[in-house]
Amino acid sequence: MNASRRDRDAEGRAHNARPRDGLGRPLPYGTPGVARQPEGVLRIPAETVREAQRLLDAGMPFHAHEVFEDAWKSGPPAERELWRGLAQLAVGLTHSARGNATGGARLLRRGAGALEAYAHIGGVPEGVAPAAYGMDLGGLADWARELAARVEGDPSRAVDPAASAPRLGAGTDAAAG
To answer: What is the mean pLDDT of residues 117-125?
Structure first.
């Protein structure tokens, strides 16, 4: 890229074309990176959950965040808090894997709160583990808070994103709902 010009997409909008590593960090031009997650992909919720889980299992939470962000931006308004909360969990895991304990913990807790708010808005009774598209939202909120406490407990140590990734649902067909 010419240093005096910004990268642009086909429509002329600013778009950073630098390669990225598996945690979404920009690499120098010309450096091999991992394939970027396509943006603006419309998926049904089950496909969103399946694709995000695949990326989380592969240690690519930044890319999983992109999948959730697509659902957040394109889904029905009533589900935006759900997908936003899941995107925040994925970004929290990303920051934790990058060694940013403060930012990671903050986003993990924010995402947990968003999932709980979504469950509450949906009329789920207090004390009942809410589920959406096969996901245990209460369990995900618990996972997020536990990981936040762990990264704050040892802020000098980045987490392994694949080993620390949540299970979005029970089993491989978790997103069937």
So the answer is: 70
